[in-house]
Amino acid sequence: MLTLDRVAKRFLRGTPNEVLALDIPSLDIAEGEFVTVIGSNGAGKSTLVKSIAGFVIPDEGTIALGGRDITHQPPYRRAGVIGRIAQDPNESTCAGMTIEENLAMAERRGRSRGLQRALDPVIRERFCATLAPLGLGLDQRLAARVGLLSGGQRQALALLMATLSGSRLLLLDEHLAALDPKTAQLVMELTARIVADQRLTTLMITHNMHDAIQWGSRLLMMHGGRIVLDVAGEEKAGLTVPGLVARFHDVSHAEFTDDRALLS
Amino acid sequence: MAQFQSLMLNMFEQGFLFGFLGLGVLITFRFFRFPDLTAEGSYTLGGATVAAMLVSGFDPFTATLGAGLAGAAAGMTTALIHTKLRINNIIAGIVVMTALYSINLRVMGRANIPLLSTPTVFGDVIGWLRAIGIDVHENVYTTIPIAFVLLALGGGVLVWFFSTNLGLAVRATGQNEPMILSLGVNTDRTKMVGLALSNAFIAISGALIAQNHGFADIGMGIGILVTGAAAVLIGEAIFGDRTVAVWVVAAIIGVLIYRLLVALALRVGLEPIDLRLVTAALLLAALAVPRLRTRLFG
């Protein structure tokens, strides 16, 4: 479904500070795969997600989605089938607008937007029905501004917005990182439920090794812009956090310095 | 008492006519979060277009609408410079504002066109009312309700527009561009729509003011953005940050209060040459008060 072919991206190109942010000779993600991605800061995880979403254009190589080359497409052209959530709740929802307005904008993902009324009783009822299963009480607060919600509520809403209509590929860029552990657990379970229900192909970046092992069907470890570990199936199921840290030392020959990853 | 009455009449008459300016500036200054200097040129463009069209015999409503379209074109030009050439939006506005000065002179053919002998939208409406047997005359008492109805229509259009799918996308473009891009919206297009709408309203304000004052002048737009911004900020200081409908009402009331304060400043002995100083002081106060309030009581 998603194919990266000899994709490379350098930041600060042509300066002494040039960094190789992404260098992926080949990556294939099949329809319905749930891939977790781990790696230290600066490993290239976010650059990977951003180049799939269109916010970073690779210097070389091609990215294809469902057989179509999307490498140079602007984000809005590929958004019809890609749902994305960022780490910062401010980025994936619109704080100054209401819950129902946010959902209305998300529901028209990839479709034309004209002068039809964005909200009416039928649409509101539909949003209520969508929000109620979250159990967060958001269905009672349709007209509340999103800025008034907690981080967890906002990420849960972002998750709905990313999957409300038409998405086939879900990109999660550390969407739990700004949440407290209990809320993160809640949003993660919601994520897994939606991904399973809609059979979404998913790429989830996380700092939490437990999450990376527990969820998904395939695990990628990145370092220095490269994919240094790619395990799936039985092998992934057998992973442990200490085992993963050891694997990291083997493949990267570097100290795994990220405290958050070790502490988790 | 008579003084108070004329103060109030002036506030409502000029306030409702400048209300379109407040609504236009609201779109760029508040929804898009940048001061769009195109306003300085498009306000005059509105006056210039309506004057040129009235003098060549167009009827006042067509001429006012023409002024709005000219303003929309000016806004679209700014949006194109900003989005296609990736030039900062404030600079893009300055470029268009500068170019418009010459264009406005070309449109008018000279620096000032008197409109005392041409028909106006106000005169037209009075004519229609008289034709159906309502005996009214064109004066400040009739201009106020006419201006109010026009402004209410304009405000209604804005509230309606920002409740449509396209309107939501335009608002989100100013608030969270990465998000709305991720939802499949071409933000180059929504910026164009927003700036066109904003400058259309500002140009209509210029067109109505020109008809009300009886002339269009090349200098009429100088400092107009600050006027609009002050009005929006005054409204916001009173009503806070809420729904689009509240924003619209707040911007209009902001304009009224701004006009009242300016008129009061003149009454207490300041001269017209001091007005810019008054405007600057009002803008500063409108900016500072909410901040001081949160610092003291927040």
Summarize the structure.
The complex is a heterodimer of chains A (264) and B (298). Chain A has 264 residues and is α/β, with parallel strands linked by helices.
What key phrases describe this protein's structure?
heterodimer; A: 264 residues; alpha/beta; Rossmann fold; 6-stranded mixed sheet; 4-stranded antiparallel sheet; 10 strands; globular; B: 298 residues; mainly alpha; ABC transporter involved in vitamin B12 uptake, BtuC; two-stranded antiparallel sheet; 2% strand
What can you tell me about this protein's structure?
The complex is a heterodimer of chains A (264) and B (298). By secondary structure, chain A is α/β, with parallel strands linked by helices. Chain A has eleven helices and ten strands. Chain A has a domain of 178 residues: P-loop containing nucleotide triphosphate hydrolases (Rossmann fold). Chain B has a single domain, classed as ABC transporter involved in vitamin B12 uptake, BtuC (Orthogonal Bundle). Chain B is mostly helical and 298 residues long. In chain B, helix 2 crosses helix 9. The interface between A and B is medium-sized, with 36 and 23 residues.
* Helix content estimate of chain B: over 70%
CATH structural fold name of the domain at 2-81 and 166-263 in chain A? Rossmann fold
Strand order of the largest sheet of chain B: 1-2
Output the radius of gyration of chain B.
19 Å
The H/E string of chain B reads HHHHEHHHHHEHHH
Discrete helix count of chain A: 11
Give the class-level CATH name of chain B.
Mainly Alpha
How much helix is in the residues of chain A?
A: 25-40%
Shape, per Cα inertia axes of chain B: globular
CATH H level, superfamily name of the domain at 2-81 and 166-263 in chain A: P-loop containing nucleotide triphosphate hydrolases
Count of beta strands of chain A: 10
Which class of secondary structure composition applies to the elements of chain B? Answer: mainly alpha
**Number of extended strands of chain B:** 2
Overall SS class of chain A: alpha/beta
Low-pLDDT runs of chain A = none
Question: What is the helix/strand order of chain A?
Answer: EEEHEEHEHHHHEHEHEEHHH
CATH architecture field of chain B: Orthogonal Bundle
Shape descriptor of chain A: globular
